[in-house]
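Sequence design from tokenized structure. All designs in this work follow the same two-part layout: the structure record, then the generated sequence. An example of the structure record is given first.
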């Protein structure tokens, strides 16, 4: 029940699409065909067969009724549904629901989509019935995809075409192991339909007359969730992260961060016990499993939603487990100017350690 609540919380920022007058929508359908990329030996056995699936997306156009829309060249935002046939019995099938943004370049002929949501896998790892699936340890998992398309709308009666490349990432972020994950690179081709093709879209341009700036602000954040060590079957444990950082807005769309994290990962407490039991490793059972880190970061603002990227270093880490450099990539949603919630993936390069759910205050 707790995990279902977390996944619901995870989708909240992505589903907060405002219902405004004069909304204009498009529907696009893409078929995709590709392959799983080899990134670990455990995944190499699943890289031969073709991947295939379909993406169905509903998009709401923007035309500058709010200033942020003009700053980002009038993006679309919406919901997309994904079906992917993994073509390996051990990997099953995927059904995903995502929130996405479409950004436009080169006279709006080139579209770049960023999508984040949840996916359901039909055949995750099971020690008895499906031991070959080292990629996914759970049915439900967070998922991400990116799409780069050449797009030509309204060629005939509101109907247009698009084609390009897609990249799909499926991983449960160590909510439960195994979690080797899969990355699929695919070619996609499809059609797009504008429901109001006869009405011309009038863009409203907003220009800042003065440079936007703010004084340094201070943030306090509490992050939590559940994860498991790489030892399959070792059990899920809660974790708690306390963060404090200063941010400096460079413009209306950008800010930089500098701060510190304090990590309490309960799975590491059990890891200390397991490592200390091995006489060859020379680790004391009293070794502190907690960690402290310092980080720098950047935040990109899109309306009340923002994309957060941070790079950190463990300044305090008595237990030598995982590399000393860590990264955090996440989404934040500002409930008010001073209060935000968010979700982030904490990793060590390509290895995910935790999916963090956050609540913070900006002082």
């Amino acid at each position: 029940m707790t995990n279902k609540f977390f996944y619901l919380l995870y989708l909240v920022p992505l589903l907060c699409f405002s219902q405004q007058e004069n909304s204009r929508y498009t529907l696009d359908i893409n078929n995709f065909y590709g392959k799983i990329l080899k990134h670990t030996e455990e995944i190499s056995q699943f890289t031969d067969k073709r991947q295939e699936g379909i993406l169905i997306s509903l998009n709401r156009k923007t035309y500058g009724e709010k200033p942020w829309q003009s700053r980002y060249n009038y993006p679309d935002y919406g919901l997309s549904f994904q079906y992917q046939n993994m073509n390996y019995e051990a990997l099953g099938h995927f059904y995903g629901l995502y929130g996405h943004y479409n950004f436009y370049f080169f006279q709006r002929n080139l579209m770049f989509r960023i999508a984040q949501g949840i996916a359901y896998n039909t055949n995750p790892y099971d020690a008895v019935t499906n031991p070959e699936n080292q990629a996914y340890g759970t049915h439900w998992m967070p998922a991400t995809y990116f799409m780069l398309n050449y797009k030509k709308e309204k060629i005939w009666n509101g109907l247009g075409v698009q084609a390009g490349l897609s990249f799909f990432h499926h991983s449960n972020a160590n909510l439960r192991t195994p979690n080797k994950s899969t990355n699929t690179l695919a070619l996609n081709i499809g059609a797009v339909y504008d429901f109001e093709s006869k009405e011309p879209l009038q863009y409203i341009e907003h220009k800042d007359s003065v440079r936007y700036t703010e004084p340094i602000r201070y943030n306090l954040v509490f992050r939590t969730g559940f994860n498991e060590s790489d030892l399959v079957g070792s059990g899920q444990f809660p974790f708690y992260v306390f963060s404090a950082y200063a941010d400096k807005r460079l413009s209306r769309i950008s800010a930089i961060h500098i701060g510190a994290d304090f990590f309490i990962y309960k799975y590491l407490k059990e890891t200390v016990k397991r490592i200390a039991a091995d006489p060859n490793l020379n680790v004391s059972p009293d070794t502190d499993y907690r960690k402290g880190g310092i980080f720098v970061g950047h935040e990109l603002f899109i309306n009340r939603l923002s994309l957060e990227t941070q790079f950190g270093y463990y300044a305090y880490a008595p237990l030598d487990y995982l590399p000393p450099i860590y990264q955090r990539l996440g989404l934040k949603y500002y409930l008010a100017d001073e209060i935000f919630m968010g979700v982030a993936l904490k990793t060590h390069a390509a290895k995910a350690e935790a999916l963090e759910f956050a609540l913070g205050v900006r002082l």
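Confidence is low (pLDDT under 50) at residues 1-21. We note this feature because it recurs in several other targets discussed in the main text.
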